[in-house]
Specification:
The complex is a heterodimer.
Chain A lengths: L1 E5 L3 H13 L3 E6 L2 H11 L3 E5 L9 H12 L5 E5 L4 H8 L6 E5 L6 H12 L3 E3 L1 H10 L4 H4 L3 H12 L3 H8 L3 H15 L7 H13 L2
Parallel strand pairs in A: 1-2, 1-3, 3-4, 4-5, 5-6
Chain B lengths: L1 H41 L6 H30 L14 E2 L5 E2 L4 E2 L2 H15 L1 H36 L3 H21 L3 H9 L3 H58 L1 H29 L2 H6 L1 H11 L3 E6 L7 H20 L5 E8 L3 E8 L12 H10 L4 E5 L6 E8 L4
Parallel strand pairs in B: 4-5
Antiparallel strand pairs in B: 1-2, 2-3, 5-6, 6-8, 7-8
The chains are: A alpha/beta, B alpha+beta.
Chain lengths: 215, 417
């Protein structure tokens, strides 16, 4: 995969580049400021890019804004946003276009290299990788939603893991259930939420998240 | 008929009020008149000094009660409340030497200290000199005008007691003047009081200095407490965890060859420790300055807060604005506190937060559907919030009847809009 890494801290940027290259992917460009990031994203059209939210010159949400700007130029451009903190607000903005290919994780998710690269590849394929904390908040703030209230506790946790971007198999492993049982749960969830089931892993996750995004 | 009755009523009320104004304003001139009369009666050219001194003392003693009464009358009749603005005496404390310190001097007994302090406060208070000036001005302004109906009545009484036609005419004229002037004559008391009894620039300045001194002390204390909290959190949290992390890594280095399995387990533990300390640091940072606030400004930070709150919180903001960071921070933490209160104490399910601006500054309203009964108690969260806003000359208005709903308005004047 061709990857752009936008991160202003040298140590972290260097570490990520080495990690990515160790897994056999190629870093085509790195960026250290907001404008550079936008340039790199538009010029290289990477398979996936890793973007830090806070970057120079203003040390505000430069990175996030550059990423969203690039995505409005190139719809569906896969982005993995890394940050020291996760906010529902940003998650909702990122997911707003419903086009998939979005990841939003805490920086410390790089501690687990396997999972991090897995998330990166999932985003590149058009899936999602959401931080569990954000998903939990999204789900709990959606709990006033009448349709969501109909879910059982188990269905709730399956929906949460789905929203993080896990496949049925991975969910089954987490909850110690068979894949068949999980796919039964997902069918019930979709039924209860009134979403037409779709074979595609990503589309259903997005459907869930977009659904939660509705006020 | 009814009109004339109400006219007569207001004339009577006005006459009584005019009398009251005359009595209050003419007290000091009466003292002087008495002094002059006494001096003339004694006849000796050198004895005028004694009545003069008495009159001066009388004026000094009477000036404050006269002003108090005048203020009271005006407040009672017109709803115009004029702050007295007298300087408060500080505390009198006993020193370790046994002497009493009253802010100006040491005295042997508490009584002496209090007496000395009273004299000095009275002497140095600009309000004292304002009161003196007022006792001079009031008789020739409000006093003269208020005495018109009285003079009219006097003229009527005098005129009707004489048989001559001209004196009867004068009496009739006096009666007309008295009745026509009565409802209005006392009204000059209000503008005179506002103009001459209000706080002078020096007094307002003194008040402001007191206010700012108190605020500065508050801020310093709050800042020190905050820094101590941060230090403690870092010391017990991240710092301790980093020590443990270093220790684990040192052990791993030793175990690497001898016992690779245990080394791996230790490494996993170290990683978990690093994650935990990052989480702690994140919480700490959020408490100092929420990252969204510096990344996006007040409105989006409040939106993020509303999304994370257990309440169904709606944010309406009609403006895009960036304020000075300290103001943004104060307002953000204010909203956070109010929303937390709504959920925790008022058991609200919904909150409405609106951010608007008016001619003078920014206004943040927080409204919930809880059970109300909130108030700024001394040492409570709302009192603290009011103090934090006061640093920016901001205000906090709370309307929270028992049974709800609670409405709180924070307003901060700012020019940087």
């Amino acid at each position: 995969m061709r990857i752009v890494v936008a991160e202003d801290l040298y140590l972290l940027r260097d570490g990520m580049v080495r990690l990515i290259e160790a897994y056999g992917h190629q870093v085509v460009a790195t960026a250290t400021t907001g404008p550079e990031t936008l340039d790199a994203l538009l010029r290289w059209r990477p398979d996936v890019s890793i973007v830090d939210v806070r970057m120079p010159p203003t040390q505000s949400d430069e990175g996030l804004r550059a990423a969203l700007a690039a995505r409005s130029e190139l719809p569906g451009l896969p982005l993995l946003i890394l940050s020291q903190h996760v906010e529902q607000l940003y998650a909702r903005e990122l997911l707003a276009d419903g086009a998939g290919g979005i990841g939003y994780l805490l920086k410390e998710s790089v501690f687990d290299a396997d999972q991090f690269i897995d998330a990166l590849e999932r985003v590149a394929r058009g899936g999602t990788a959401m931080d569990p904390a954000v998903v939990a908040k999204l789900l709990s703030s959606g709990s006033s939603n009448r349709r969501l209230a109909r879910l059982t506790e188990r269905e709730h946790s399956v929906l949460g893991l789905m929203a993080e971007g896990l496949s049925n198999q991975a969910i089954g492993q987490r909850l110690f259930l068979s894949q068949g049982a999980i796919s039964k749960y997902t069918t019930t969830i979709f039924g209860k939420l009134g979403i037409t089931d779709d074979d595609s892993n990503n589309r259903r996750v997005l459907a869930v998240l977009t659904y939660l995004n509705e006020p | 008929m009814r009109q004339s009755v109400s006219w007569m009523a207001s004339a009577c009320v006005g006459f009584v009020r005019a009398c009251a104004v005359v009595v209050v304003t003419m007290l000091v001139p009466a003292v002087w008149a008495a002094a002059v009369a006494l001096a003339i009666w004694w006849g000796n050219p050198w004895t005028w000094i004694v009545p003069f001194v008495w009159a001066c003392i009388g004026t000094f003693i009477l000036s404050r009660p006269v002003c108090r009464m005048f203020r009271l009358l005006v407040a009672k009749w017109t709803d115009t409340v004029i702050p007295p603005g007298y300087r408060e005496a500080g505390p009198v404390v006993r020193m370790s030497t046994g002497y009493w310190w009253n802010g100006y001097s040491y005295e042997r007994t508490r009584r002496d200290a209090l007496q000395d302090q009273r004299m000095r406060t009275w002497w140095r208070d600009p309000a004292t000199w304002r009161d003196l000036r007022f006792t001079g001005i009031a008789p020739v302004t409000a006093g003269v005008i208020a005495s018109i109906p009285l003079a009219g009545v006097a003229a009527a009484v005098f005129g009707f007691s004489q048989p001559a036609l001209t004196s009867r005419l004068i009496g009739l004229l006096g009666l007309v003047v008295a009745v026509a002037g009565a409802p209005y004559a006392w009204r000059s008391a209000e503008p005179v009081a506002v103009r001459f009894l209000g706080a002078s620039p020096a007094m307002m300045l003194a008040e402001r200095v007191d206010e700012l001194t108190a605020q500065r002390a508050d801020t310093t204390v709050a800042q020190a407490a905050e820094i101590r909290r941060i230090e403690r959190d870092l010391h017990d949290g991240a710092q301790a965890r980093l020590v443990a992390l270093g220790l684990s890594l040192a052990t791993v280095e030793k175990l690497m060859e001898a016992d690779p399995d245990q080394a791996k387990a230790l490494l996993r533990e170290a990683r978990a420790g690093a994650t935990t300390s990052l989480t702690e640091l994140r919480e700490l940072v959020k408490g100092i300055n929420p990252p969204v606030l510096s990344e996006r400004g007040l409105i989006d930070a409040v939106r993020a807060l509303a999304l994370d709150s257990p309440l169904e919180a709606t944010v309406s903001a009609d403006v895009r604005l960036r304020l000075d960071p300290p103001i943004e921070s104060a307002l953000y933490f204010g909203v956070a506190e109010l929303v937390t209160n709504a959920a925790k104490h008022a058991h609200a399910t919904r909150a409405l937060i609106s951010i608007t601006r008016d001619d003078t500054g920014i206004v943040v309203d927080v409204e919930d559907d809880g059970r109300g009964g909130a108030g700024a108690r001394a040492g409570g969260g709302l009192a603290g919030l009011r103090r934090r806003l006061a640093v920016f000359d901001g205000t906090l208005e709370i309307t929270s009847p028992a049974g709800g709903p609670t409405r709180v308005r924070m307003a901060v004047p700012c020019e940087s809009l």
